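hey so i finally got around to running both of the ones u sent me last week. sorry it took forever, my laptop kept dying halfway thru and i had to restart like 3 times lol. anyway pasting them below in the order u listed, first the sequence line then the C-alpha cell line for each. didnt double check formatting much so if smth looks off just lmk and ill redo it

first one:
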Amino acid sequence: MGIFDWLFGKKDKRKSSKKEVVEQYKIDDDMPASMDTIIDGHKIFKKDMTGLLEYFKEMPSMERIYNDFTHSIRNGYTVKKYLNDANLIDDKEIRAIAGKGFGVIAGFLEDMLKIKENAELRKDFNACKDAVKILQVKTVDKTDSNKSQNITADDYFKKSLDHFNLGVANDPLTSEGASEMKKGIKLLDKAIKLDDKNPMYFYNRGTGKKMILDYKSAIPDFTKAIKLKFESPENAYFNRAMSKLHTQDLEGSKKDNRKAEELGYDEYQVEQLDEWLDSVEEIGYDEFSKQFD
C-alpha cells in the first residue's frame, strides 16, 4: 500500500492523482518543503504533505516501515503485534529509531488533519501515537544514581540531543515538544558547568531556546558560540539574527544577517530574513508577528 493509497483506504472507490492528494494536504504559502536549519544536521520539514514526502526522501526505510505498518493495521493487526512481528521492539537502538520516526510522522499527520479531516488518516495518526508510546519506553540508567560514577560534559551533551530530537519530533511549540526541549536545555546547563569552552554546547543551547521562542536568552548563547570559534559561525550568526529580529533589535539583526551571508549561509533564508526585516520596519513588529504566527 503506497503513501497515497492510505489516505482514502481500500474500500473508497474514488481515484485521486498524486498531485490532487498533495494539493489537498498542502499549506498554501511560499515556504519550501524542508530547510537545513535544525540541530545536529537535521532538517526542519513543512508540516504538510510536501514536508512528509521530503521526510520520506530522507528516510526511505521509515517510509517502507510506515507503508507496511498501515497495511498491517488495516488487515487486523494490533499496533503491538506489528511492532513485535517487525522486530522493532527488542533491540534498544532500533526501537529508539523507529519510535522517533513514528513520532515525526504522527506530527505530520496531526497537522494534515488540521488542513482536512479524513477518517483513514485519523486512524493512521492514532496508530502512530500508539506505536510511539510502545517504542519510547523509558529506560533507567542505574549509573545516574551512583554518585561515584563520573559523568562528563559530553555525556550530558549526548543526552541533550536525545531530548532535542524528541522535541523536534513532537513539535517544539506543543507542550510535549517544549517539555523535551527544556529537558535538553537543562542537560546543556550541566554540560556547560563542567566545560564552558565548548562552542557546540552554547550553540545547541541557544538553538533549543530559540525553538521554544526564548529569543532573549538565546542571543548570549549564540554570542558565546561565536566567541569560542564555533565551527559553523554562519549558523550562529543567522540564528542570532533571527533572535534579534524577535527582540526587535533590527539593526543588530541586519548586521548579523549580512555576516551570515558573507560566511556563506543559505541564500534563500538570508533573503527571507531581509524581507521579514523590511516588513517589520513597514508595518511594525506586532502586526508582523501576527502574520508570522
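and the second one:
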Amino acid sequence: MSSNRATYVIAGSAIGGAIAYFLLKARRRRSPGAVHRIDIKSVPQKMEALLETVERCAYDVSGRLENMRRRVMESLEAGRRGYDESEGGFRRKVHTFESKNDQIAAKVHRAIDELNRTILTLEKSILDPLYHLGSVVRGIRRGVRTLAG
C-alpha cells in the first residue's frame, strides 16, 4: 500500500470513527423521538464543531504517522550505517590479513632462496674439492694397481 493510500485510509477511518462517536454519544443522551426535536439552526454549528474535531483527530493521526515514519526512516538509516561500518571493518581486517599473508609468503620464499644459495655455495666450496680429491685418489689407485699388476 502506498503511503498516500495509507494516509487516506487512516484519515478516513479517523473521520468515520469521530462521526460514529458523536452520533452514538448523541443517541445515548436522547430518546428515540429526540431526532424530531433537533434545532435546525444549530446543525451548522454542530457540523462545524464536528468538522473541527475531525480535523484535530486527523492532524493528530497525521502527526503520529509522520513521527512513526521519521523514526522508521532513522532506524533504517542507522541500520544501514551500522552495516556499512561493520562491512568496512571486515574488509580492512581481510586486507590486513592478506597483506600479512603476502609478507609471510615473501619471507618464506626469500628464506628458501637463501637456503638454495647457501647449499650451492657449500657444494662449490667444500664438496666440489672433495669430489675432485676423491677422483684423484681413485685415479691414483687404479694407476698403482695397473702398474703393480
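quick thing i noticed on the 2nd:
The mean pLDDT is 81.
anyway thats it, ttyl
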